[in-house]
Every structure is written in C-alpha cells, then in structure tokens.
Amino acid sequence: LLDLEEQNRKLQQELLEERKNTNFTQTYPKGWETIRNLIQSNPGAARLYSVLSEHIDGNCGAVVADQQFLADQLSVTTRTIRNWV
C-alpha cells in the first residue's frame, strides 16, 4: 500500500512538472508593437532584445550577461552592444 502511495505521489509530481511552461516566454500585444517598432527603427537593437528575451530568468525577470557574451551571441563587438543598449 505504501509503495502504491509513493508511486501515485511521484506520478502526481511528474504531471505537475509537465504542466509547467518551461522554456516559454510571453509577449503581450503592447510588447509586440514595441518589437515591431524596434525592428523598423533599429534592427540591431531588436536582435539584442531577442537574445535578452531568450535568456531571461522566468523566476525573477532578469538577465545576467556581460557585454562580451552578448557580442559573441550576435557576432558583433562590445562597442556595438553598448550602442544598441
């Protein structure tokens, strides 16, 4: 009986984990408008925004990345990253 309860508990935990939206980011309509405007006015900054969005920590809404990492991700210089920010 205890074994069945443990199996049931594990199954319930697995189901809860499956329902979580991991690797998921959400954008609201105003955000899409901002993204479209950024793509039109400064495509490079829009690329940077997409990298930041990809690496955001969903628990706290923050990204911790140095300029060299961002530059490497986008194949640009750190100066370009500073200009885009």
Your description of this structure?
There is one protein chain. With 85 residues, the chain is mainly alpha-helical. It has a domain at 42-85. Helices cover 68% and strands 0% of the residues. It has helices at residues 2-19, 29-41, 43-54, 67-74, 78-84. The longest helix is centred in the first third of the chain and has 18 residues, at 2-19. It is elongated and about 65 Å long. The protein starts with a helix and ends with a helix. The model has no long low-confidence stretch (mean pLDDT 89). This is Helix-turn-helix domain-containing protein. It comes from Escherichia coli.
Q: Estimate the mean pLDDT confidence.
A: 89
In total, the number of strands is 0
Helical residues, percent? 55-70%
List the uncertain runs.
none
What is Rg? Answer: 20 Å
Number of helices: 5
The major β-sheet equals: none
Task: Report the portion of residues in β strands.
Answer: under 5%
Order of helices and strands: HHHHH
Gross geometry: elongated
Estimated structural class: mainly alpha
Query: N-to-C terminal Cα separation, in Å?
Result: 60 Å
Summarize the structure.
This is Helix-turn-helix domain-containing protein. With 85 residues, the protein is mainly α.
